[in-house]
What does this fold into?
Amino acid sequence: MRELLYLPDLLAGITLEAGPNGLRAIRFGQRMMEDSPGPIVIAAEQQLREYMAGERAVFDLPLDPTGTPFQLEVWAALAQIPYGVTSSYRDIAIAVRRPKGFQAIGQANTRNPLPVIVPCHRVINADGSMGGYGGGLDRKRQLLDLERTYAQRFGKTAA
It folds into this structure.
């Protein structure tokens, strides 16, 4: 059974999709068919709303992303970037033991099916510039600004 929930008021509209094993995807600006919410997408909605209100820094959801072994490894490394902190593509390449694989890291980052929860928005260029974001740079800025605003609440120092 597939769970779907469209949230038009979060991040200019997102669709949450889950299967029996966990949250599979967050899609920006897309409404996927009719909503059929279940417990996983309902929990994801609650946690995303808490995050956007500055009340949550860490998500506690079952995740079920689909990707290649390399993509899954990159996404696992992204999940280790702390709230309110940014890392470079180079940092991620080193974390997955492919120090010259910046481009491959960027491609895996772009294909992240669980943005926000697997925080690809926290990845920036080595020179400190924003880089790209599948949800658009405005959303990336919004998420980074939100985390900078609330980082101290969670005992974090924003970078």
